[in-house]
Amino acid sequence: MTPRVDIVSSGTLSCNPFWGDVGTVRAAHATTTLIRDGDDCILVDPSLPADILESRLAEQTGLTPDRITAVFLTNFRPVHRRGLTLFPDVPWYLHEEERSILEPQLERVVDFASEGSDAEYSEEEAELELMRRTSTAPDSLSRHVDLFPSPGVTPGACALLVAGLRTIVVAGDAVLTGDHLDHGRIYERSVDPERAKSALAEIIEIADIIVPGHGNFAFR
């Protein structure tokens, strides 16, 4: 059976340089995508708040949250995971490189915040607890869905490659929007611009259809 890819919610940027935006002009959210591959229902980047996401999931796919079998985060940026709590009983997958680099960083932040101070640091602790709740993603999430590492925007960002009649790459922020794709532009705040450029080039080379991190389907 050929896998199916649906946009649950098309993301947007708070400031899109290709639209003439100056400063923050809208609330940013990431694109949320559903991949159905046989009995597997993989939700990618649950960006909207849980109550809104639940409604959007029903509107766009006819599914309830209990039908989701796994959640995959293309990176650990907060805008990609606001709705995680809607799926408490399934794996929350993150690429190994993202986990191995960011978890020690969070641990150091929590340790530093707690040393010799009575100040609250609940936000940092919550981030670390959330990171520890995630699982390292296997190389293949289902029969037709494989990891496609695309580091650069974040240390271990990872897209998903969906093999069917056409090759679809759910790119996360490796391809920020359709405008960024058309102009060959990476995210200006990428932690490693050279790796981000390489990831963008690899996705362009292999994909027939791209799901950007903050936009709707883009075709090559």
Can you walk through the features of this model?
This protein has one domain (4-219): Ribonuclease Z/Hydroxyacylglutathione hydrolase-like (Metallo-beta-lactamase, Chain A, 4-Layer Sandwich), CATH 3.60.15. 29% of the residues lie in helices and 24% in strands. It contains 5 helices and 12 strands. It has a 6-stranded mixed sheet. It has a 6-stranded mixed sheet with strand order 7-8-9-10-11-12, covered by helices on one side. Helix 1 (50-61) links the parallel strand 3 and strand 4. It is globular and about 55 Å long.
Outline the secondary-structure elements.
Elements (H helix, E strand, L loop, with lengths): L3 E6 L22 E6 L2 E5 L5 H12 L8 E4 L18 E3 L1 H19 L7 H12 L1 E2 L3 E3 L2 E5 L8 E6 L3 E6 L5 H6 L9 H14 L2 E4 L5 E2 L1
Parallel strand pairs: 3-4, 4-5, 5-6, 10-11
Antiparallel strand pairs: 1-2, 2-3, 7-8, 8-9, 9-10, 11-12
Helix pairs in contact: 2-3
